[in-house]
Amino acid sequence: MSTETAQDLHRGAPSGTPLLHADDLYAGYLPGINILQGCSLVLHPGELVGIIGPNGAGKSTLLKALFGLVNIREGSLTLKGEDITNKRADVLVRKGVGFVPQTNNVFPSLTIEENLQMGVFQTPKQFAKRVDAVFDMFPELGKRRRQRAGALSGGERQMVAMGRALMAEPSVLLLDEPSAGLSPVRQDEAFLRTRRINKAGVSVVIVEQNARRCLQICDRAYVLDQGRNAYSGPGRELMNDPKVIELYLGTLAADVEAEEAQATEVVGAVEAEETGTLGDLDAQRAVVDSSDEPVIIDDADPIEPEHAVDGGETQPRDKE
Ligand SMILES: Nc1ncnc2c1ncn2[C@@H]1O[C@H](COP(=O)(O)OP(=O)(O)OP(=O)(O)O)[C@@H](O)[C@H]1O
Ligand SMILES: [Mg+2]
Q1: What are 210-234's pLDDT values in tens digits?
Q2: CB 1 within 8 A of CB 24
Q3: How far apart are CA 214 and CA 190, in angstroms?
Q4: Does the Cβ of 56 fall within 6 Å of ligand 1?
Q5: What residue spans define the domains of the chain?
Q6: Does 3.40.50.300 match the CATH number of domain 6-315?
Q7: Which of ligand 1's atoms lies nearest the C-alpha of 63?
Q8: Which residues, 6+ apart, have CB-to-CB distance to 186 below 8 Å?
Q9: Does any ligand 1 atom lie closer than 6 A to the CB of residue 201?
């Protein structure tokens, strides 16, 4: 166990019983080699908690351990106080945990609608109840429900993967790098969407490479390094912590002021977004250009569609 007190370990966390509590986890893939070496995390009801850290730190491994996909060798995992250590993923889905993996997160040969059906394959009656809500959340998908997921852009596939997880009405959503491989504009959309899902009542753990954006939108975050907790605290505090900046954000302390100004812009966009309702992504867009300039919300200036739509046929772009 870390020498830090529980308060330091989960700095800024609310009091009360966490929804999800990973305590001192050791886990790995190969015998005798632990990738997680005493990782801890709490997620309280309604929170959006980020996990950042260098490549290979164990971020994806931690999410997989939370979702029963990597064997937990030591430590414990509880959901609403109930022990779920090493419970299988399908059991966890029934208990209200959803997971969107970092890669290969759609069934490419299935249509959008069929992908969503896979999200409720254990409770097929739920499909009719949920599908409209998910298409309200992702109107772009609703319009093209019979299109194969393999023909979609990276951003759209990410929406399908999130939509599939949301079909089961999770109370906890685990997201592994929802912005990976997307253009800056699409990345910001992914963050705003995540925040919106969270505001709709889903508690979220999000792993992100885009550490600054992650810290801007999350309530609290953990920095993982070599399978251990390195830092934790409210997102905005970590963003301005010189040690975190130096070690993990790759920015000189002198840039903090500029970062702060940019964070204010993004948070402003998020707050503007929060006054909207689920499903109006077409109307409200967060627009940044490729140099990561401030976010602008402008109803009159929607983002160009990813695809040239012609008579219902679409021409997917190769890459985001
Ligand atoms: N299936 C696997 N079998 C064996 N080792 C693995 C496997 N998956 C990951 N690892 C190893 O575990 C370590 C942590 O990987 P993990 O994917 O959890 O890191 P990460 O923090 O998510 O990195 P990234 O930012 O690159 O996504 C790495 O050394 C990686 O090589
Ligand atoms: Mg990863």
Answers
A1: 999 999 999 999 999 999 999 999 9
A2: yes
A3: 11
A4: yes
A5: 6-315
A6: yes
A7: 18
A8: 154, 155, 179, 320
A9: no
